[in-house]
Design brief:
With 340 residues, the chain is of the alpha/beta class. The chain folds into two domains: 108 residues, NAD(P)-binding Rossmann-like Domain (Rossmann fold, 3-Layer(aba) Sandwich); 174 residues, Rossmann fold. 23% of the residues lie in helices and 16% in strands. The chain has a seven-stranded parallel β-sheet with strand order 10-9-8-11-12-13-14. Strand 13, helix 7 and strand 14 form a beta-alpha-beta unit. Helix 2 packs across helix 3. It is elongated. The relative contact order is 0.12.
Length: 340
């Protein structure tokens, strides 16, 4: 069978567990892995998983092959609306998604025995983005910046202290935002399925319409489902206090964008900080690009130096669980569903 610790061939992929690798001394079969994040990511994975056969694959279903057993899938843009490849899922037993949301992936992807997300992995980065947008709104950035002596005049800026934050969703991102907001002295209320407080200092409501009139800042960090689509609509916005700041770091279809534009024009919404939209990207000349009260970013709230390293660390840990037959983290349950 060859020397212990060395791969035998592409199809056998047997290695002997050694000290510090697993508690078992038996031969273990290592799966064929395909990753869709480019050559540099592939090299980084191979440096960590020296005994594994890792293929650098093109993003999306075009990069999938029938004998792939584990797939580290590219973000949703590469998969959205794509047809099912012939033979799917083939030998594929596990797909690791790089983010939290599953709504933009095609339904046929979930015919794989196990699909897992990276839920919560980038929550600290997204929470920082949310706080930056709220502080920017209150401190009037960039409007408060001056470029000439004639502009050197006293101006009043706002504050987060004492303001009311409405959170639509209290998963990992919502929880991280709430912690920061409480540290700034904000009053936090959260939309969830039960009235049990998600954490100390946070009030819970179960009706979105109760959330609407409470908010100075509304942060959307809930999943996209048939129940949450257009949760921010004409009726919701009509119940909001004038001067609302909306932050969306979740999914574009949580907001009725036409209703939002009307609310921006009539003053109900003072600013919309949108990291997501429907569709992505928005078509050229869409009014959200140029509206003076909109701050639009290209779905980058998750990003930070080290974000990909965190994903690889998480994936390597998951792989160890997979190989040893232990339950994986963040497994997508059937039927596909999300908690608030």
């Amino acid at each position: 069978m060859g020397r212990p610790g060395l791969r035998q061939c592409r199809f056998c992929r047997l290695v002997r567990a050694g000290p510090g690798r697993t508690p078992s001394a038996h031969l273990m079969e290592l799966p064929l892995i395909a990753q869709q994040f480019g050559d540099q990511t592939g090299a980084a994975l191979r440096s960590r998983l020296a005994h594994h056969l890792i293929i650098d694959a093109a993003p999306g279903p075009e990069g999938w092959s029938h004998d792939t057993e584990v797939l580290l899938a590219a973000p949703t843009q590469a998969w959205r609306g794509k047809p099912r490849p012939r033979g799917w899922p083939g030998a594929t037993r596990w797909v690791q998604l790089p983010g939290t949301g599953i709504d933009a992936y095609p339904e046929w992807m979930f015919d794989v025995p196990c699909v897992t997300t990276a839920a919560g992995l980038n929550a600290p980065f997204i929470a920082e983005f949310v706080m930056a947008t709220m502080l920017g709104f209150e401190k009037r950035f960039p409007e408060a910046w001056i470029k000439a002596a004639d502009d050197w005049k006293p101006r009043m800026s706002g504050t987060l202290h004492g303001k009311r934050l409405a959170l639509a969703g209290v998963g990992a991102v919502g929880t991280a935002v709430a912690r920061h907001a409480l540290g700034f002295g904000m009053h936090v209320v959260a939309l969830r399925r039960t009235l049990a407080a998600p954490m100390d200092g946070v009030q819970a409501v179960i009706d979105p319409m109760r959330l609407a009139p409470m908010a100075d800042h509304l942060v959307l960090c809930m999943p996209s489902t048939p129940q949450t689509r257009h949760v921010v609509n004409e009726t919701f916005l009509a119940a909001c206090r004038p001067g609302l700041h909306i932050v969306n770091v979740a999914r574009g279809d949580l907001i009725d964008q036409e209703a939002l534009l009307r609310a921006l024009d009539d003053g109900t919404v003072a600013r919309a900080s949108l990291d997501v939209a429907t569709p992505e990207p928005l078509p050229d000349k869409h009014p959200l690009y140029t509206h003076p009260k909109v701050r639009l970013t290209p779905h980058l709230a998750w990003s930070a130096p080290g974000a990909v390293v965190k994903l690889l660390d998480f994936f390597v840990g998951q792989l160890g669980l997979f190989i040893t037959g232990q339950p994986l983290k963040n497994r997508v349950p059937p039927p596909l569903s999300h908690p608030l």
